[in-house]
Amino acid sequence: MPWKLASLGTLFAVVMLSGCSTGTTEPAADPVTTTDTGHSRCEANAAEFAIGKQASPELLEQARKRAGAQNARFLQPNDMVTLEYRSDRLNLNTDANRVVIRVNCG
Fold first, then answer.
1. Which region is the signal sequence (predicted)?
2. DSSP 38
3. Dist CA 46 CA 66 (whole Å)
4. Which residue among 63, 64, 66, 99 is buried most deeply as judged by most CB within 10 Å?
5. 50: closest CA among 71, 29, 64?
6. Cα torsion for 77, 53, 33, 73, to the nearest 10°?
7. What is the pLDDT of residues 10-26, one digit of tens each?
8. Which of 52, 32, 31 is closest to 40 using CA atoms?
9. Residue 40: how many CB atoms within 10 A of its CB?
10. pLDDT tens across 36-88, in order?
11. CATH number for the domain that contains residue 59
12. What is the DSSP letter of 44?
C-alpha cells in the first residue's frame, strides 16, 4: 500500500511540474535587457544623438525611447539630484543654455 501512495504522489508531482515548463524555445522578437524589477535597462549610447541639441520635451521622449529607458530627465548645472542609481533612468545633462552636453544612465 505505501508503494502505491508513493507512486501516485510521484506521478502527481510530475504532472503538476510539467505544467510549469514552456514548450517554446523561440527568442524574443525584440530582446531588451531588464533589471531585477522588470524594467528595461537604459543604454546611454543609443541616446548620444541628443548631444549638442536644445532641450525639449520631444527630444527627451525620443532619447528615452531610443535608450530603452523607463524614465528620463534633463539635468541643468545647478539642479539638485538624488543619489540613488536607477539603471532604467536616462539623464540628459545640459549647460546653462539648455543644450545637451552629456548623456548617461542612473
1. none
2. S
3. 6
4. 63
5. 64
6. 40
7. 766 666 666 655 554 44
8. 32
9. 15
10. 445 578 999 999 999 999 999 999 999 999 999 999 999 999 999 888 899 99
11. 3.30.10.10
12. G
User: Could you list the residue range(s) of the whole structural domain that residue 52 is in?
Assistant: 44-105
CA distance 75 to 50: 13
pTM, rounded to two decimals:
0.62
Other C-beta atoms lying within 10 Å of the C-beta of residue 35: 13
- Please count the other Cβ atoms lying within 10 Å of the Cβ belonging to residue 9: 10
Q: Is position 66 within any domain?
A: yes
Distance CA 76, CA 55 (A): 10
Nearest to 74 by CA among 42, 102, 49: 102
Neighbours of 37 (CB within 10 A): 9
Instruction: Report how many domains make up the chain.
Output: 1
